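Could you help me review a protein record that somebody else here produced? This is what I was given.
***
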Amino acid sequence: MDAQARIVAAVISMPILTAIGDSIGVMGGYAVAIYSLDFTGTTYLKNTWDFAHSDDITSGLIKAAVFGFIVALMGCYHGYNSRGGAEGVGAATTNAVERMLAEVRRGLATSLAA
């Protein structure tokens, strides 16, 4: 499998995983609201629907796709350029994670400064 296929797979799968995680979070909130806070199910679901704006959901899924792109790009680059057997692969993994975190931090700083 080449790098392009891995990057496309990450860009597609990260928003799907994010949507699954968001859904599980809403279900967990539903369980807490019903069993611990004595809300009615209708009240919880109505408030969740009213306060969840489509812009928030869309931006979260776009961020997940961008994050998937960065993770896959850094992983492919450092993985393909690793040397020295298992030790080299370990060092490449560490470098990929460090570089990916640096890029995400830089993106956050840029978006917060704007």
